[in-house]
Amino acid sequence: MPYRTGDVERLLGVGEHVLRHWERCLPILSPARSAFGRKLWTEADLALLLRVRHLVRDRGLTLAATMARLLAERSGPEAGASAVLGEARAALVGAWFQSRALSERAARIL
Predict the structure, then answer these.
(1) CA distance 31 to 47
(2) Rounded CA gap, 1 and 8, in Å?
(3) What is the pLDDT of residue 104?
(4) What angle in degrees, to the nearest 10, is found between the helix axes of 43-53 and 5-12?
(5) CATH architecture assignment, domain 5-109
(6) What is the DSSP letter of 76?
(7) Residue 33: its H or E element
(8) Where does the pLDDT of residue 97 fall: very low under 50, low under 70, confident under 90, or very high at 90 and above?
(9) In which region does residue 30 sit, left (phi positive, over 0), alpha (psi from -120 to 50) or beta (all else)?
């Protein structure tokens, strides 16, 4: 299921301007576009964005260092573990959105 930019902003706690900046500086980020030109993010995209946010905010890396780290994780000896962690992040993203939808549905019923 594709996610819109507003969904991504809520999940990551960053503004659209931050996402645009990350996209410009990190060519590895490339969401698909709808027929109307809106960005559509996949769970894999969101998992990657979560990793970027962690490296930038929690680890204090620059975007250039973040890009180098992401490339090393995907092509070096850590690639297998990185892939497994990426899949786990993507599954957690999906679960987060599902729980959110259920919570909103429950709030409308109550």
Answers:
(1) 12
(2) 13
(3) 78
(4) 40
(5) Orthogonal Bundle (1.10)
(6) S
(7) strand 32-33
(8) confident
(9) beta
